[in-house]
Recover the amino acids of this structure.
């Protein structure tokens, strides 16, 4: 991005430097700077990025935007009113001034795996940029767009916790194609109801032009109700009403297969990860591929080559045990999907499940729902950890024999040897702040 474009985007003032120079890299982290890069100092609750301007230049930055008066005559310095707003303004400018298509991906669960699967399909035909890590919020999304070099498509993950947040992201990204994986109960504590979660997810369409394409999982009870005449709504799923439909789903311990039906075509799809939820992710990736005129052969190849982002349902083989590491986060839907994956194994099955957080007044009901679900899935041992998981334990105990309850990870770690045997398959899952990684490491 040229300096004069940044000035135009931010309405900033060039304090020093040449407006014809080009910036190749943008970061809000002074430790990540490199030559040709611009440091964007943001003000947080506990720190002010302006305190690290000197450090950013020492690390290699050649340019900064700043809301404070500073003097670096040999560097590019642009004065703006608000660096956070300037970050967004630069991303909006770049998005609208470059010949690139944007695919937005959101949903209560499965955003990251769907994003990765869509990326794997799209890159078969186009030079593609995708969101890395959890850069899916109002700082991460603009920074991702600012990574643009000469790509033809951007695959952007978009997350939210509150109403109007997704709308702001959509007005930055202006997606040409948007995908909603599902509407579950994640963040129901903040949003109050699944109806509000649906409303918040549909804000992804706020920045979309008329006749743009919205791809939704039509098997989801909330998404089934979507009616947006101004958009081209593409419905995927197993059930009737889906224009891209899956049948003959077969779930194995390390992969899944299904037949996809689209218009008059039917094709067998091989998905290199387990779980029915990944069949739905694949359907969304197929829909994106079709929308971007990618051949079915290339779509199939993209799905076959798909690799899950690390720390999302990693399958580990350690100490004569198979560990399904779901410690990244947890909601009712992701818990159920993970339990389904565990249930698909033929060996002895152990589930170690901890609190799902941010559920507000719904917490007891939703933990009981998970407890009841485990009890229907022929899991051999259930271990529940945490204050809220007590409800899970109580519900499961009504129908299951080997159910145990602990208040802390340490109590479980001390007794793991009593619960686990060689060749067990062990699912470990709960909200990130429950620190279940320490149990995975112990196993």
């Amino acid at each position: 991005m040229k300096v004069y474009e940044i000035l135009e985007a931010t309405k900033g003032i060039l304090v020093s430097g040449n407006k014809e120079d080009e910036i190749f890299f943008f970061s809000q982290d002074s430790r990540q700077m490199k030559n040709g890069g611009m440091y964007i100092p943001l003000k947080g609750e506990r720190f002010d990025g302006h305190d690290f301007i000197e450090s950013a230049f020492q690390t290699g930055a050649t340019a900064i935007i700043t809301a404070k008066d500073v003097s670096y005559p040999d560097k590019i310095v642009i004065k703006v009113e608000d660096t956070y707003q300037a970050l967004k303004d630069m991303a909006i400018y770049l998005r609208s001034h470059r010949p690139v298509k944007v695919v937005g991906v959101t949903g209560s669960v499965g955003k990251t795996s769907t994003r990765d699967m869509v990326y794997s399909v799209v890159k078969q035909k186009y030079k593609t940029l995708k969101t890395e890590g959890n850069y899916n919020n109002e700082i991460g999304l603009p920074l991702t767009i600012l990574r643009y070099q000469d790509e033809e498509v951007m695959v952007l993950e978009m997350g939210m916790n509150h109403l109007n947040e997704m709308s702001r992201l959509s007005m930055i990204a202006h997606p040409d194609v948007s995908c909603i994986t599902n509407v579950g109960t994640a963040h129901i504590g903040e949003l109050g109801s699944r109806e509000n979660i649906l409303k918040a997810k549909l804000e992804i369409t706020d920045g979309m032009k008329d006749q743009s394409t919205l791809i939704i999982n039509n098997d989801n009870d909330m998404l089934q109700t979507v009616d947006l005449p101004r958009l081209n709504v593409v419905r995927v799923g197993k059930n009737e009403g889906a224009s891209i439909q899956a049948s003959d789903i077969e779930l194995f311990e390390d992969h899944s297969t299904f037949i996809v039906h689209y218009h008059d075509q039917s094709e067998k799809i091989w998905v290199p990860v387990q779980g029915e939820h990944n069949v739905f992710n694949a359907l969304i990736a197929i829909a994106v591929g079709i929308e971007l005129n990618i051949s079915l052969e290339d779509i199939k190849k993209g799905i076959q080559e798909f690799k899950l982002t690390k720390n999302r349902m990693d399958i580990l083989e350690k100490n004569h045990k198979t560990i399904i590491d779901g410690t990244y986060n947890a909601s009712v839907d992701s818990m159920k999907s993970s339990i389904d994956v565990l249930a698909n194994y033929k060996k002895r099955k152990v589930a170690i499940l901890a609190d799902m957080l941010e559920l507000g007044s719904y917490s007891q009901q939703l933990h009981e729902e998970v407890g009841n679900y485990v009890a229907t899935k022929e899991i051999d041992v259930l271990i529940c950890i945490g204050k809220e998981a007590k409800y899970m334990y109580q519900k499961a105990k009504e129908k299951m024999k080997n159910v145990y309850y602990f208040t802390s990870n340490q109590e479980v770690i001390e007794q793991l040897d009593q619960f686990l045997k060689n060749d067990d398959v062990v699912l470990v899952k709960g909200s990130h702040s429950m620190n279940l990684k320490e149990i995975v490491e112990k196993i």
User: Anything to note?
Assistant: The first strand starts at residue 13 and ends at 16. The mean pLDDT is 94. DSSP finds 15 helices and 20 strands in the chain. The radius of gyration is 24 Å.
